[in-house]
């Protein structure tokens, strides 16, 4: 398969979910968790709790010893998961167990390339698809290296979710979008995960060139901390990614799994409510504008 | 995609069969065979492109080269001499051992060759803030030194474990006006310092220049650092012809990330008669698993922006490393070394902590040259190699740094306190 051919796979849970949400005028809420944090047995329960609290897509982090694009919160989560030797194989079996009770919610694996490389790219893709994974976001895979990797993912009907940053110029945006699938993850500021807050006013302008380059939905992550942040992002993006705030809840309840689950549900539920309220308001406004027209 | 891109990494063979393989590397995407490239978060791609472009322009600029040469002469003290270690040669009982005296550079090691080049590039690019990672502290000291010289603000990331081992260098950096930021994550050593520096760079790309201290990292770093260090091999080649009347039969250099080694090796790659040996840190011995020798016992993988040989477990997690020398305590290696190993142009071997310490003491006592513990690994292997060669033959060792910084480690290993 050439890298220049359209890489979007046939329909999978991820593409289906985004097209359903678009038809309903809804913004996707995309929570992130590091698999195996604080211990492997907790992860599947956390995933179900997130779905009940309103998650549309789950990003599941694959722990890595050297998460160089992540801040201290997710780095600490990786260290907790690795203290229990959580491997990529373990993460795939967590997804398979999640799928026993949830066949609808798309799951995107997010992590660094080396664990995938060690397992073997094609072997990984086959196992991931079989486990019920729908998309893969490899943080340190650049558009330059992507043509060696993406065909194996798309051949297994896995969407290659890609990052775009504020420093990405228009030519690179086009190049990245050519290899991307599922959705575009727009990194809302220069920095590592969890390190600053969001400038929602600037977002619309930053997203515009991505809209020109692709039909793919755009999720915005890095810096979404509060329900108000989430609602503001929903005004300009198709999806809202929430990571460090949730992982921070786990860190606050290390010896209390039920407490952690409740905190995750509450935090995400509040964001869901804020996004839904904003989505509804937007729809009413659009309807009114339609009537006046 | 270049034709070398998919070359089977298992290709091995005599150097003579592959004399052209390194030419034209890296390719446009920064690949040395299957190694190198760019594996970083998207936020770093724009600054890497900016750096690659600025470096390409600087290479074409005679004024930049003249300024660099002037600082190399007046500030660093180049050219460094080569020195015939006669008593060490006699003791080894075989080939003549020569030292390329990089320990005589300002700040005491080869590291400054690269720091001056990159810092001058930073000024040219309008960057006002320098960051660096350091293991033994030599690169940190060299960076702090050139930052002081050029009036740039400087932050050095250093693992807290390394700060303990290299307290004097920490103090030197602070005296030079640098902020030394302790890194508490992971194994608290060089690799974690590099993670932290990359994180800082992502957050401060507008005003910050990241001076990577070795020939690893995303393109263009491996080739750029090699080019700045290649002055070592260029001088050596000329000096050996002048002094010994012929090229050395073998080159020996220690390899952590591999910058002093590639700087020595690169100008000799086309000289078929010159055998090349890179010496990795064998720690407690390769079989013990406690070492820092990815080329001897690791596997290909992706870390810190490039594909290269890595110390990793079956799940692709990066393993802890061990070496008596902080500067070799790194789980990866420059991608060009991985390529030179695969094509058989260079040989990579290892030397244990014990052997390195013995070589440190011997060189100090009988030559009056106190090498860095990193460098002692190269000397230990050169002694072993010399014994298998004849007195008419010669070995050139890159004496990459001086040992003053290692007093505490040497004393500790000898069961003494300072």
Task: Give an account of the 3D structure.
- The complex is a heterodimer of chains A (293) and B (418).
- With 293 residues, chain A is α/β, with parallel strands linked by helices.
- Chain A has one domain: Alpha-Beta Barrel (TIM Barrel), CATH 3.20.20.70.
- Helix content of chain A is 51%, strand content 13%.
- In chain A, strands 5-4-3-2-1-9-8-7-6 form a 9-stranded parallel beta sheet.
- The radius of gyration of chain A is 18 Å and the shape is globular.
- Residues 1-8 of chain A have low confidence and may be disordered.
- Chain B is α/β, with parallel strands linked by helices and 418 residues long.
- Helix content of chain B is 41%, strand content 18%.
- Chain B is built from 16 helices and 14 strands.
- Chain B has helices at residues 45-59, 62-76, 86-92, 111-124, 138-150, 160-165, 167-175, 190-203, 221-229, 231-243, 259-265, 294-297, 335-342, 353-367, 373-386, 407-413, and strands at residues 31-32, 35-39, 82-84, 96-101, 129-134, 153-159, 179-183, 208-210, 250-254, 275-283, 299-303, 305-310, 347-352, 394-399.
- In chain B, strands 3-4-14-9-10-13 form a 6-stranded mixed beta sheet, with helices on both faces. Chain B has a 4-stranded antiparallel beta sheet with strand order 1-2-12-11.
- In chain B, helix 9 (221-229) packs across helix 11 (259-265) and helix 10 (231-243) packs across helix 11 (259-265).
- In chain B, 61% of the residues are buried.
- The model of chain B is unreliable at 1-18 (pLDDT under 50).
- At the A-B interface, helix 3, helix 5 and strand 6 of A face strand 2, helix 1, helix 8 and strand 11 of B.
């Amino acid at each position: 398969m050439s890298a220049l051919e359209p890489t979007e796979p046939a329909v999978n849970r991820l593409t289906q979910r985004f097209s359903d949400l678009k038809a309903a005028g809804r913004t996707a809420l995309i929570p992130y968790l590091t698999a195996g944090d604080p211990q492997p047995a907790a992860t599947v329960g956390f995933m179900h709790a997130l779905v009940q609290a309103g998650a549309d897509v789950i990003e599941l982090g694959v722990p890595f010893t050297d998460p160089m694009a992540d801040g201290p919160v997710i780095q600490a989560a990786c260290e907790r998961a690795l203290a229990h030797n959580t491997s990529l194989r373990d993460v795939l079996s967590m997804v398979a167990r999640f799928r026993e009770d949830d066949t609808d919610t798309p799951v995107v694996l997010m992590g660094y390339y080396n664990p995938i490389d060690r397992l073997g790219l094609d072997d990984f893709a086959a196992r991931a698809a079989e486990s019920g994974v729908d998309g893969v976001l490899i943080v340190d895979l650049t558009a330059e290296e992507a043509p060696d990797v993406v065909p194996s993912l798309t051949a297994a009907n896995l969407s290659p979710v890609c990052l775009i940053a504020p420093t990405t110029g228009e030519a690179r945006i086009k190049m990245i979008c050519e290899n991307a699938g599922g959705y575009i993850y727009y990194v809302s500021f220069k920095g590592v995960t969890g390190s600053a807050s969001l400038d929602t006013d600037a977002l619309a302008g930053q997203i515009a060139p991505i809209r020109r380059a692709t039909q793919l939905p755009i999720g915005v992550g890095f810096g979404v901390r509060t329900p108000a942040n989430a609602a503001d992002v929903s005004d300009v993006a198709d999806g809202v990614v929430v990571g460090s705030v949730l992982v921070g809840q786990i860190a606050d309840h290390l010896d209390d799994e039920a407490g952690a689950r409740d905190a995750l549900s509450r935090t995400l539920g509040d964001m869901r409510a804020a996004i839904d309220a904003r989505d509804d308001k937007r729809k009413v406004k659009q309807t009114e504008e339609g009537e006046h027209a | 995609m270049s034709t070398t891109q998919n070359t089977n990494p298992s290709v091995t063979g005599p150097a003579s069969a592959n004399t052209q393989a390194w030419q034209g590397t890296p390719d446009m995407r920064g690949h040395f065979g299957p190694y190198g490239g760019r594996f970083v978060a998207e936020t770093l791609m724009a600054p890497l492109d900016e750096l690659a472009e600025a470096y390409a322009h600087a290479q074409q600029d005679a004024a930049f080269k003249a300024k660099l040469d002037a600082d190399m002469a007046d500030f660093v003290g180049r050219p460094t001499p080569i020195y015939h270690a006669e008593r060490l040669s006699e003791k080894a009982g075989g080939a003549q051992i020569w030292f390329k005296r990089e320990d005589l550079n300002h700040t005491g090691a080869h590291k400054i060759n690269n720091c001056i080049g990159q810092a001058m590039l930073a000024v040219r690019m309008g960057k006002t803030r320098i960051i660096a990672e350091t293991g033994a502290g030599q690169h940190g000291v060299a960076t702090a030194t050139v930052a002081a010289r050029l009036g740039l603000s400087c932050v050095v990331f250093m693992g807290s474990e390394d700060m303990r081992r290299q307290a004097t260098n920490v103090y030197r950096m602070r005296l030079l006006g640098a902020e030394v930021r302790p890194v508490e994550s992971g194994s608290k050593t060089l690799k974690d310092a590099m993670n932290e520096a990359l994180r800082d760079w992502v957050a401060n790309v507008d005003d910050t220049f990241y001076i990577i201290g070795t020939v690893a990292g995303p393109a263009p770093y491996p080739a750029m650092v090699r080019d700045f260090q290649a002055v070592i091999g260029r001088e050596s080649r000329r000096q050996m012809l002048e002094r010994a009347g012929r090229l050395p039969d073998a080159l020996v250099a220690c390899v952590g990330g591999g910058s002093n080694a590639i700087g020595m090796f690169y100008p000799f790659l086309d000289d078929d008669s010159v055998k090349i040996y890179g010496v990795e840190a064998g720690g407690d011995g390769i079989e013990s698993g406690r070492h820092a020798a990815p080329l001897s016992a690791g596997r290909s993988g992706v870390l810190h922006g490039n594909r290269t040989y890595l110390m990793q477990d079956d799940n692709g997690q990066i393993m802890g490393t061990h070496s008596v020398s902080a500067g070799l305590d790194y789980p990866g290696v420059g991608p060009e070394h991985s390529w030179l190993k695969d094509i058989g142009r260079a040989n990579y071997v290892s030397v244990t902590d014990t052997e390195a310490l013995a070589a440190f003491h011997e060189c100090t006592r009988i030559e009056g040259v106190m090498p860095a513990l990193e460098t002692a690994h190269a000397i230990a292997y050169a002694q072993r190699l010399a014994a298998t060669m004849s007195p008419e033959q010669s070995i050139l060792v890159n004496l990459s740094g001086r040992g003053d910084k290692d007093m505490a480690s040497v004393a500790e290993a000898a069961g003494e306190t300072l």
